[in-house]
Amino acid sequence: MAVPGKVAAFRLPPLPTVGEIIKLFRLKALKQLSQNFLLDLRLTDKLVRQAGELKNAHVCEVGPGPGGITRSILSAGVEQLLLIEKDARFIPGLKILSEAAPGKVHIVHGDILTYNMEKAFPKHLKKNWEDEPPDIHIIGNLPFSVSTPLIVRWLENVSKKDGPFIYGRTQMTLTFQKEVAERLTANPGGKQRSRLSIMSQHLCTVENCFVIPGQAFVPKPEVDVAVVRFTPLVQPKIQQPFKLVEKVVRSVFQFRRKYCFRGIETLFPESGRLKRTEQLMMTANVDPTLRPFQLSMSQFRNLCNTYRKMCDEDPSLFAYNYREELRLKKTTGLLISTSQPEQTEEENQL
């Protein structure tokens, strides 16, 4: 008997197990798509709990596959669940879940990399950036091949407050290879400190929630998997455009094992490179003999702020591309070498 005054918790009716759905529709994980299924509902429940309170929330699940995590999300009592699945083989199994939760599930057969997230949720859910996060969550067991480019894209959306973050500081709970998760959450001086560490932590609070052993997945991947939660910050730690921060950070980590000035040099054209590098490091008050992974967030902020001033003074500077300069040098060198006449045997002897 229901307790008076309390809303009954949503429960899915009896359904085929995820394993039975896989057999029923003859589903196989495709290696070329980096697919790995999580079938243990205790683990999918634990993953979904990391997202926080989902009762009456609106959730987007990325790549639901056979629907293991989908069941745990629905059992959490969400208001609406948007499923974005690229692989058409999984749609019939997801429709079974949709029919078991009438009016709650919307299935999109499409690619998350091209899907317009700005129209994914009702407008009334929008909140100001300074407010608490909206009642919107993104959850997903991401294929390894997609996880890094996707989180970089979403971090850029956080910076611009567009895409899924047009609604406010939308929270994300996602899976990554354990090593990638360690990079995302690494502290200064840590061996995993990388470009991803800076790009994620200057925009979000990033939490490594727990590790799922590889043997929990079907097929078993060669690595363990970690669940990571992202909550966008009200104020980014580096208040510069995303592309500028990304360019500085990428340059610094270009020569990870060398002194940081070696990477910073690549921000500048060959003409005047040394002088400008010294100017940047001196103004930013950064020790040029530190390794990239030793730099703190405040030091990266100083580098980005100083580089921005230098770009304002010389607008052509931001467009400079070190790799392009190397490529042109190489091409020019090849042209010169091929245009020279071959030496005779006599000249070779001389």
Automatic annotation (TrEMBL):
<dbReference type="GO" id="GO:0003677">
    <property type="term" value="F:DNA binding"/>
</dbReference>
<keyword id="KW-0809">Transit peptide</keyword>
<keyword id="KW-0805">Transcription regulation</keyword>
<protein>
    <recommendedName>
        <fullName>rRNA adenine N(6)-methyltransferase</fullName>
        <ecNumber>2.1.1.-</ecNumber>
    </recommendedName>
</protein>
<dbReference type="GO" id="GO:0006391">
    <property type="term" value="P:transcription initiation at mitochondrial promoter"/>
</dbReference>
<feature type="binding site">
    <location>
        <position position="141"/>
    </location>
    <ligand>
        <name>S-adenosyl-L-methionine</name>
    </ligand>
</feature>
<dbReference type="Pfam" id="PF00398">
    <property type="entry name" value="RrnaAD"/>
</dbReference>
<feature type="binding site">
    <location>
        <position position="111"/>
    </location>
    <ligand>
        <name>S-adenosyl-L-methionine</name>
    </ligand>
</feature>
<dbReference type="GO" id="GO:0000179">
    <property type="term" value="F:rRNA (adenine-N6,N6-)-dimethyltransferase activity"/>
</dbReference>
<comment type="similarity">
    <text>Belongs to the class I-like SAM-binding methyltransferase superfamily. rRNA adenine N(6)-methyltransferase family. KsgA subfamily.</text>
</comment>
<feature type="binding site">
    <location>
        <position position="63"/>
    </location>
    <ligand>
        <name>S-adenosyl-L-methionine</name>
    </ligand>
</feature>
<feature type="binding site">
    <location>
        <position position="85"/>
    </location>
    <ligand>
        <name>S-adenosyl-L-methionine</name>
    </ligand>
</feature>
<feature type="binding site">
    <location>
        <position position="36"/>
    </location>
    <ligand>
        <name>S-adenosyl-L-methionine</name>
    </ligand>
</feature>
<dbReference type="InterPro" id="IPR020598">
    <property type="entry name" value="rRNA_Ade_methylase_Trfase_N"/>
</dbReference>
<keyword id="KW-0496">Mitochondrion</keyword>
<keyword id="KW-0694">RNA-binding</keyword>
<feature type="binding site">
    <location>
        <position position="38"/>
    </location>
    <ligand>
        <name>S-adenosyl-L-methionine</name>
    </ligand>
</feature>
<feature type="domain" description="Ribosomal RNA adenine methylase transferase N-terminal">
    <location>
        <begin position="43"/>
        <end position="234"/>
    </location>
</feature>
<dbReference type="GO" id="GO:0005759">
    <property type="term" value="C:mitochondrial matrix"/>
</dbReference>
<keyword id="KW-0808">Transferase</keyword>
<dbReference type="InterPro" id="IPR029063">
    <property type="entry name" value="SAM-dependent_MTases_sf"/>
</dbReference>
<dbReference type="GO" id="GO:1904047">
    <property type="term" value="F:S-adenosyl-L-methionine binding"/>
</dbReference>
<keyword id="KW-0238">DNA-binding</keyword>
<dbReference type="InterPro" id="IPR023165">
    <property type="entry name" value="rRNA_Ade_diMease-like_C"/>
</dbReference>
<keyword id="KW-0698">rRNA processing</keyword>
<dbReference type="InterPro" id="IPR011530">
    <property type="entry name" value="rRNA_adenine_dimethylase"/>
</dbReference>
<dbReference type="GO" id="GO:0003723">
    <property type="term" value="F:RNA binding"/>
</dbReference>
<keyword id="KW-0489">Methyltransferase</keyword>
<dbReference type="GO" id="GO:0034246">
    <property type="term" value="F:mitochondrial transcription factor activity"/>
</dbReference>
<keyword id="KW-0804">Transcription</keyword>
<dbReference type="InterPro" id="IPR001737">
    <property type="entry name" value="KsgA/Erm"/>
</dbReference>
<keyword id="KW-0949">S-adenosyl-L-methionine</keyword>
